[in-house]
Specification:
It comes from Candidatus Eisenbergiella merdavium. InterPro entries: DUF1653-like_dom, DUF1653-like_dom_sf. This is DUF1653 domain-containing protein. The structure is a single chain. With about 180 residues, the protein is of the alpha+beta class. Among the domains are: about 60 residues, DUF1653-like domain (SH3 type barrels, Roll); about 60 residues, no CATH class. The chain is built from five helices and five strands, in the order ββββαβαααα. Strands 4-3-2-1-5 form a five-stranded antiparallel beta sheet. A hairpin with a 6-residue loop joins strand 2 and strand 3.
């Protein structure tokens, strides 16, 4: 793979699991470029791997049956966002037939959901939800906060974005605190 991963891109590991790139970092001692990424399953663990390993090919000796050529493969945008590709070829105006008919109505686009919002909605425990929600600080929108509030059956008051975020965070903290996940 020739490209450098970008934050919030979703990659599929050759074994099938999905991961979200959080950021790129440098090793404190060696200066080696590292990819910091989070699993989008289970406990949503966070991992660090050297950039060369992340973008490298699968070890065919160790994994001879691997279907993928690379260890991680970039997934196209998950929901409703256009995929990068070649620009459509320009058609000269003389080649277009002249019509008096009305133009076709614009096709409805499927709404796009943030991958972190999807991860939040898929999280099974309030502890996982809280960790993902904390990572959303600074990029959460009013619509995202409303979606999260509805999913948790919380009545979120109108107001400033930061106030709504804090109110929702306090509710999730309270839910997490009283979540019954211990064996009795």
């Amino acid at each position: 793979m020739n490209r450098t991963p970008e934050p919030n891109e979703i990659y599929q590991h050759f074994k099938g699991n999905l991961y979200r790139v959080i950021t790129l970092a440098k090793h404190a001692d060696t200066g080696e470029s590292m990819v910091i990424y989070q699993a989008l399953y289970g406990a949503f663990e966070v991992f660090a791997r050297p950039l060369a390993d992340f973008t490298g090919k699968v070890d065919r000796i160790k994994y001879p049956d691997a279907a993928s050529e690379y260890r991680f493969t970039l997934l196209p945008q998950i929901v409703g966002q256009p995929q990068p590709g070649p620009a459509p070829e320009a058609i000269p105006e003389t080649a277009l037939p002249v019509q008096d008919a009305q133009p076709d109505p614009a096709p409805e686009e499927e709404p796009s959901l943030d991958p972190m919002l999807l991860a939040f909605l898929d999280a099974e425990t309030y502890e996982e939800k809280l960790a993902i929600f904390m990572d959303m600080r600074g990029r959460a929108t009013d619509d995202m906060l409303t979606t999260i509030a509805v999913s948790l059956d919380i009545d979120l008051k109108e107001g400033e974005l930061e106030e709504r975020y804090e109110e929702l965070k306090n509710c999730i903290v309270m839910l997490e605190r009283f979540e019954c996940n211990r064996f009795r």
